[in-house]
Amino acid sequence: MVLAFAGCLVGPDFAPPAQPAPEVWRGPLGPALSTDAPDDASLAHWWDALGDPVLGELERRALEGSRDLAIAEARLREARARRRGVRAGLFPNSSASASAGRTHAERGVPETRESYDVAFDASWEVDLFGGLRRGVEAASADLAASEADLRALQVAIAAEVAQAYADLRALQRRIALAQENIRVQSETLELTRWRSEAGLTTQLDVEQARANLEQTRAALPQLRSALSASSARLALLAGEPPGALDALFEPPAPVPTPPARIAVGVPAAALARRPDVARAERQLAAETARIGVAKAQAFPRLTLTGSLGLDALAASNLLSAASYSSSVLGNLTQIVLDFGRVRATIEAQEAVRDAALAELEATLLEALEETENALVGFEQEQQRRLALTAAAEAAGLAAQLSRDQYAAGLIDFESVLVAERALFTSQDQLAASEGQVASNLARLYKALGGGWQSEATP
């Protein structure tokens, strides 16, 4: 009978729900993107394609030293231990004991008695209807969800490191451009002073040149403050105090340049790769299995117990046949009246399962939205950078021509002011856009699920 019922599993079996995903991306991909399937190995360390050794070192430090990852890894170990504990419930429990005693009584005639006892006891709850096995199934799914949580955090940290690093390099470039514009505008101020002293212009030109210079100089404190914040953020991501990584950022270097072409695959493949989607699916599997755990409470429970023992009044007789004893007991219990407690537990767990299904569906939609937005954002910022590059080149030529013509007395100073302000604005926007392109690349790889490698769950 035990063997016949041991194969029963009450409750629904988990089947991954259909994940409807578009076969193609919403809009046509630009020249920098392709629907080729990305290589898993290169996707796991996508930052290597940028060819920046400092970024690679930062990623390594962050993935090794992040306190958030340490917390997630501890929770993963906890989930593994809990699964082992649940699995242990499928097997018999056993214990051994030994005791020896001596009593002495003074009742007229002194009497001393000895007793010796050795026992081995075992008990086993037969999993007739699969409640214990469903518990193991739920614990295994919980473990897989914890592992997916860890991988999702790795993806997020890898992207955040790259974004903070891109911001830092862009800020360094913007500071250098501001300093160069301050140098040029200082020369322009001297030129207006010379022309004013020579009677070729008025003091108005001098004050306008001074105002233009100070306005550019006023941008430096804000840029330096943002640079310090980016450096501190990178240190925190690596599990280091602020300033610990500053030596890595000297001397200033260009913003990492994205590869010429990026394989993004198709939507369905991107969803299957994302750890947040895997986590939501495993959570649904766990809650589905717990319905079986709840339903098993309504069925009979069979517990087998047995014991072997040796009992003697003298140590020399402990191993004799007369001291041997044994017992076997089978206990079958069935809930008769619980006023709907088990039914309520089942219904509550079914509601939890339905909520997990809705969460999975929401996660899928959010993943598609994030990936589509990342694709569009990366492409459009690339186009913006190209336009700003042309604008900065033209502004540089215009500024040089305006200064030359002003020095020759061919134009008024207003044209110089407009040209110099346009130059600084264009150069600053271009540097910021270069940083944004690299940042959007990190956001794209995060949306594609890049930054982690699949590992077997022991």
Structure description:
This protein is an alpha+beta fold. The chain has one domain: Outer membrane efflux proteins (OEP), CATH 1.20.1600.10. The chain contains ten helices and six strands. It starts with a helix and ends in an 11-residue tail after the last helix.
Question: Which keywords apply here?
Answer:
6 strands; Outer membrane efflux proteins (OEP); 60% helix; alpha+beta; 10 helices
Question: How widely separated are the two ends?
Answer: 34 Å
CATH architecture assignment = Up-down Bundle
Please count the helical segments.
Answer: 10
So what's the overall shape? elongated
**What is Rg?**
37 Å
- Total beta strands: 6
Brief write-up:
With about 450 residues, the protein is an alpha+beta fold. The chain has one domain (about 10-95, about 130-300, about 340-445): Outer membrane efflux proteins (OEP) (Up-down Bundle). The chain has helices spanning about 1-5, 40-45, 55-65, 65-90, 130-195, 205-235, 265-275, 275-295, 340-405, 415-445; strands at about 35, 95-105, 110-125, 260-265, 300-310, 325-335.
